[in-house]
Amino acid sequence: MVEPDLSRLARTIGDPTRMGMLALLMEGRALTAKELAYGCGVQPGTATEHLKRLQRDGLIESTAQGRHKYYRLASAEVAHVVEALMVVAKPMKVRRPAGAMGAARFCYDHLAGELGTRLTAVLLEREFLVVDGDAMDVTERGKVWFADFGIDVATLRKRRRRFAYPCLDWSERRDHLGGALGAAVAERMLELGWIDRQKHSRVVSISELGHQALANEFGFVIDSLASDQAVEISS
């Protein structure tokens, strides 16, 4: 009989440096070993050994491009595990912009923080989305809205990854929209110029156009101004 080796996985994730690397990769972009080493405060040689362990256990994958090797999370499911751990982890104080991370960030490739949870709440309230157990689905009204927004729901359903599901947000303690649909919403907002990624960070910047669009389209405003102070977080 074959069973998942949960104890090995726990030991792999439980190392502070490896957990830090997974958290850095939660922004959804590929990073080099040197960037991950710098982000976790370890030497490149040490980082390489940690990356080998993460890759052996199927948590990350790598792609060679020229002289560099880039690492990313192996799947959206890995990102979901990391985000779930952030929900249950005991908070600790670190110096990080207090407002920005909680206001808007990426959870792998979909939107999290206040922006992600409030957007999801509006889509549910307007009955564009419905919760079905541990999944979400698009209603007939929702199909029309998503099409007008520039998202082809039928095409997303054909992808191998889960279509849509509620992802519990560690900072808001409410659900945001995960899955292929959540990623498509984030990508569309990037295309429209409503939001932008901050380099080597999960933080999302909301443009002036984005603030206006969120107010007009969804009826809310996000205060994304960050203050440099100690803040309790779970990662």
Secondary structural class? alpha+beta
The total of helices stands at 11
Count of the domains: 2
Distance between the termini: 36 Å
Strand tally? 13
What sequence of helices (H) and strands (E) makes up the elements? HHEHHEEHEHEEHEEHHEEHEEHE
Q: How would you state the average pLDDT, rounded?
A: 86
- Broad shape: globular
Report helical residue fraction: 40-55%
Strands of the widest sheet, in order across it, are 1-3-2
Beta-strand fraction estimate: 15-25%
Low-confidence blocks of residues: 225-235
Question: What is the CA-atom radius of gyration, in angstroms?
Answer: 18 Å
User: Can you summarize the main beta sheet?
Assistant: 3 strands, antiparallel
Domain HTH arsR-type: 1-93
Protein name: Winged helix-turn-helix transcriptional regulator
Organism: Billgrantia kenyensis
Pfam families: HTH_20 (PF12840)
Summarize the structure.
This protein is an alpha+beta fold and 235 residues long.
Structure description:
The chain is 47% helix and 23% strand. It is built from 11 helices and 13 strands. Helix 2 packs across helix 3. The two termini are 36 Å apart. GO terms for molecular function: cadmium ion sensor activity; DNA binding; DNA-binding transcription factor activity; lead ion binding. It comes from Billgrantia kenyensis. This is Winged helix-turn-helix transcriptional regulator. Residues 1-93 form the HTH arsR-type domain.
What topology does this entry show?
Layout lengths: L5 H9 L1 H9 L6 E2 H8 L3 H13 L3 E6 L2 E6 L2 H13 L3 E6 H6 L1 E3 L2 E3 H13 L3 E4 L2 E4 L1 H10 L3 H5 L7 E4 L6 E4 H13 L3 E3 L6 E3 L1 H11 L9 E6 L2
Antiparallel strand pairs: 1-3, 2-3, 4-13, 5-6, 7-8, 9-10, 11-12
Helix pairs in contact: 2-3, 3-4
